[in-house]
Amino acid sequence: MVSKLDGPRLIPKGRAPRQLVVFLHGYGADGNDLIGIAQQWQGLLPDAVFVSPHAPEPCAQAPVGRQWFGLNLRSEEELWRGVNQAAPVLNAFLDAELARHGLGAERLALVGFSQGTMLALHVGLRRGLAALVGYSGLLVGAAHLRELPKGKGATPILLLHGDQDDLIPAEALFVSIEELAKAAIPCQWHLSVGIGHGIDGGGLMHGGLFLAQAFGMKPKLGSAA
């Protein structure tokens, strides 16, 4: 595994960044897969710098793609090992990006898709964040939520899923919500009707507005495009 991450980024136009939004792509993709969302959210978050790092490992099942960790059995134990393996590299990247832009933890948001959501939840619940948005993923290691450092777990969370997802079924959304609730961690959610393993326009709108509100902004609905 490489020790340093990098990927495409979009910076504010003519102003210093006041927020940092980091995208974590899915298994077999790379940072280019999600950076386009930044262009759609820039109207809602004009002061944000968006970064979409490439995952640290080449993907075994997609030669031109990347992975945050390997997936073979897709068992709970394998997923738990995976998020713990990937977390240190991601945390180092987040710390470096915050320092680079002179921002505090309260100015950081994570946005994940699929495997990226698994990692975003794992890391985000264990460090200070402004917000966390997860698309088409699931919570890994629910039994370990009681081990969270005191004061963590208060990050605003929005989970979104397609009701026709045949890769990670929508049931995963409701299981994740239930497990977070058991740990007294509030979570908002949205189910996209007729959507498979992907993100629709409504899901993008919900995610962008959620981040803007978490950063203390008062967005106008027409500013998302």
Keywords:
single chain, 225 residues, alpha/beta, Rossmann fold, seven-stranded mixed sheet, two-stranded antiparallel sheet, 9 strands
Could you explain how this protein is built, in words?
- With 225 residues, this protein is of the alpha/beta class.
- β8, α4 and β9 form a beta-alpha-beta unit.
- Helices cover 31% and strands 19% of the residues.
- The longest helix is centred in the middle third of the chain and has 26 residues.
- A seven-stranded mixed sheet has the order 1-3-2-6-7-8-9, with helices on both faces. It has a two-stranded antiparallel ribbon with strand order 4-5.
Question: What would you say about this model in short?
Answer:
This protein has helices at residues 35-41, 76-101, 115-124, 171-182, 201-214; strands at 9-10, 19-24, 48-51, 57-59, 62-67, 108-113, 131-135, 157-162, 188-192.
CATH homologous superfamily grouping: Alpha/Beta hydrolase fold, catalytic domain
Order of helices and strands: EEHEEEHEHEEHEH
Class from secondary-structure proportions: alpha/beta
CATH-defined architecture = 3-Layer(aba) Sandwich
The largest sheet, given as strand count, sense and whether it forms a barrel, is: 7 strands, mixed
Q: What is this structure's SSE topology?
A:
Elements: E1 9-10, E2 19-24, H1 35-41, E3 48-51, E4 57-59, E5 62-67, H2 76-101, E6 108-113, H3 115-124, E7 131-135, E8 157-162, H4 171-182, E9 188-192, H5 201-214
Parallel strand pairs: 2-3, 2-6, 6-7, 7-8, 8-9
Antiparallel strand pairs: 1-3, 4-5
Helix pairs in contact: 2-3
